[in-house]
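Format notes (please read before filing issues)

Several people have asked whether sequences and structure tokens are stored in separate files. They are not. Every record keeps both together, in the order shown below: the sequence lines, then the token lines. Line labels are part of the format and must not be stripped during preprocessing.
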Amino acid sequence: MTIESKLEKIVENTPFIQSIKFYYPDFNNEKLAFKEEKISLNTNEDVKDTIEKYLKILQRKI
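Then the structure lines:
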């Protein structure tokens, strides 16, 4: 059995945009809240660094 995958075209320097919900505790209202952000990811980019950046930004706003 052989599985093949073929690209229609290669588009370089084009990031993948993804909407992610970041959940955090809302201590004032005693519930869980979230902030939705659109993040940009490039090929071979470490997603951990990108998520960490957005969590730090969110932490400053709380």
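For reference, the curators noted about this record: Residues 5 and 11 are 16 Å apart (CA to CA). The first strand starts at residue 16 and ends at 26.
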